[in-house]
Design brief:
Elements (H helix, E strand, L loop, with lengths): L2 H11 L4 E5 L4 H11 L8 H4 L11 E8 L19 H19 L5 E4 L7 H7 L4 E2 L5 E2 L7 E8 L18 H5 L5 E2 L2 E2 L5 H4 L8 H7 L10 H4 L2 H4 L26 H8 L9 H12 L4
Antiparallel strand pairs: 1-2, 2-6, 3-6, 4-5, 7-8
Helix pairs in contact: 1-4
Length: 294
Amino acid sequence: MTLASSIKSAARALGIPACGIACPDADSLLAERLAAAGPVPFSPPAARRLSWDAVLPGARSAVVCLFPYRPEEEEDGNIALYARPEDYHRVDHRYLARLAEAVAALAPEARCAAVVDTSPLADRWLAWRAGLGFYGRNHCLIHPVYGSFVTIGALLTTLTLPADAPMESRCGDCRRCLAACPGHALSETGFHPWTCKSYLTQKKEPLTENEEAILRRTPLIFGCDECQRVCPWNERALPSPLPETGEARVPRLTEEDLALSVRAFDRTYKAYAFAWRGKKLLARNFSVINEKNK
């Protein structure tokens, strides 16, 4: 068994269901894609998204992992699906830490650094280069088995490993996501993030009337799942095998939850991704969305 195969086998043994390898040999293609995609909210400038060495000097490969989050049964709620279980940053990092230990046992000379989407690197690009999915028209990475209901983590390493082959798009003629987007952020010409509802629910600047109208088009007060809900690949996506997906879920925040003091709210919900922008923003979104019911 090759070292790459042994690392992938170790990932599966840890419960990580999808693992591939990417190498920084196509950064020119990434530069072109980032330029075409335009700005990405809450992300650093494109130049930083190209620099593996800024994260791990001497990085030669990335062991990229997908962490599915579709539950066995979806609850009625007002929080995006990915943010209902424990914060995926915490969960993914725990798995990656265990994988780093496995890599160290296989190759003691290797240096590793775990990254999730808070690193400057373009995580969907890493996953695509690692053969773990294709870019959908909704600009999500789509895995053939788990759909786009996945988060992405990677272990940068100084090991030189063979890269897996990227996948070609499998969207075909489907354009359901374009029609479903509440903010018309998706079009044939690309993704326009400033009218994406997921972005608007996390935008701290005051919302315009049009932006408030976009929020009211669906009940979620954090995030937006519309382009994913209508995707045929997600209709048949398997539930997550990760036990964390089904544990301590928070599908909904109520008016009473949002009346808590900032300290009490943070203490109660600090382990969830929806808390990262603070209670005040969630309360604003709740108020805007529920105005139509008053």
